[in-house]
Design goal:
Strand content: 15-25%
Helix content: 25-40%
Number of strands: 12
Distance between the termini: 48 Å
Number of helices: 10
CATH architecture of the largest domain: Alpha-Beta Complex
Number of domains: 2
CATH class of the largest domain: Alpha Beta
Largest sheet: 10 strands, mixed
Length: about 350
């Protein structure tokens, strides 16, 4: 690379300060150093804000099992204290060289809303060229950001309109297995599928680049030009289908997406939306928004597929509903038919 473009990393925290701290420890070990970090606390109720402040000030460190294969990505802890700033959502950022901003939202904005808040703050810096939207339940390899920047800059030099790049996602708890290298979307049934999921990573996607319809939201590297041309993510889904929506809007304006297999990110899938109410409540939330948003998304982009998507949704409810969250599925399905969007108390 001939220069070092400034990257802003946006990490959203919701009741998951222990995940976020581990993520940040990995981020600050990156070989690529020209970046700043915005942590959006999405109305956490578990004391996350104080814990994150304590970490930045050197009053709190994380413990990792000595047998954890990813321990070296976050242990020993980076040097503290870190200079950081506390900001309200509409407050202009003035970041120190350490580049850490903690922005506290008093309202849960959902996945898109919280990331959009970070995006708007990053774009207020005219030097910001790229934004890395990174789930807090991830741990990144040390060359992950270097590889993403190189891929983006190479694409730009080749006059390719690549607006969004995804990492190779591996499972945090099974780092030899793939979580995803992107996703395919099947419009007639309204269902996405993550490519490579649960496969043993043998480098099979390092040279062979599969056709991908969307970038998995755990790691999305987005250019400033893409965001200015396409706009932010749609916030009316609240959870799920935002990545698909964003990619399709970009494609309609000539933007492409790409995979960067040299950028390796380990993902604790599911922890980002976790609540302190237990596993059942988390899956109820998931089931509601998945069943609702597949209909909202279909109506928006593939209205000619709506009948088959409705039929496939009914079949899925009949198959899955008696194993768990039947009410959440039915409610999500009905609200999708009624075109109800936004945040819902599930």
């Amino acid at each position: 690379m001939t220069d070092n473009p400034l990257v802003y990393v946006v990490v959203v925290n919701f009741n998951g300060w222990h995940h976020t701290i581990e993520c940040l420890e990995g981020l600050y070990r990156q070989g690529y150093t020209h970046f700043k970090v915005i942590v959006i606390d999405n109305a956490s109720m578990d004391g996350s804000v104080e814990m994150l402040r304590a970490w930045a000030e050197g009053r709190l460190d994380i413990y990792k099992d000595p047998h954890n294969p990813l321990r070296a990505y976050c242990i020993p802890p980076i040097s503290k204290p870190l200079r950081y700033g506390n900001f309200m959502p509409q407050e202009p950022l003035k970041l120190s060289e350490s580049g850490l901003a903690l922005v506290v939202s008093k309202k849960n904005l959902g996945f898109a809303g919280a990331n959009n808040l970070g995006i708007s703050l990053a774009l207020s810096d005219p030097l910001c060229r790229y934004i890395w939207l990174l789930n807090n339940d991830t741990v990144v390899s040390r060359d992950a950001l270097t590889a993403l920047v190189k891929k983006a800059e190479d694409s730009q030099r080749q006059d390719k309109m690549v607006g969004m790049i995804g990492s190779k996602l591996l499972y945090y708890h099974a780092p030899h297995r793939l979580n995803a290298v992107g996703g395919r979307y099947y419009k007639w049934v309204g269902m996405p599928r993550q490519i490579g999921m649960m496969e043993i990573d043998k480098g099979q996607y390092n040279k062979y680049k599969p056709k991908i319809d969307y970038i998995v939201g755990a790691s999305m590297f987005v250019s400033r030009d893409f965001i200015l041309a396409v706009g932010p993510m749609a916030e009316d889904y609240f959870l799920y289908y935002e990545e698909l929506d964003w990619v399709l809007k970009g494609r309609h304006k000539g933007w492409a997406i790409a995979l960067c297999p040299d950028s390796v990110v380990y993902h604790k899938e599911g922890a980002t939306i976790g609540s302190n109410k237990g596993k059942r409540e988390r899956s109820s939330t998931t089931d509601y928004y998945v069943f609702r948003n597949r209909i909202l998304f279909t109506r928006r982009f593939y209205p000619y597929c709506l009948v088959t998507v409705i039929i496939s949704s009914v079949v899925a409810i009949l198959i899955k509903g008696f194993k768990g969250n039947l009410w959440a599925m039915l409610r999500g399905f009905w609200d999708g038919l009624c075109n109800k969007s936004g945040a819902i108390d599930v």
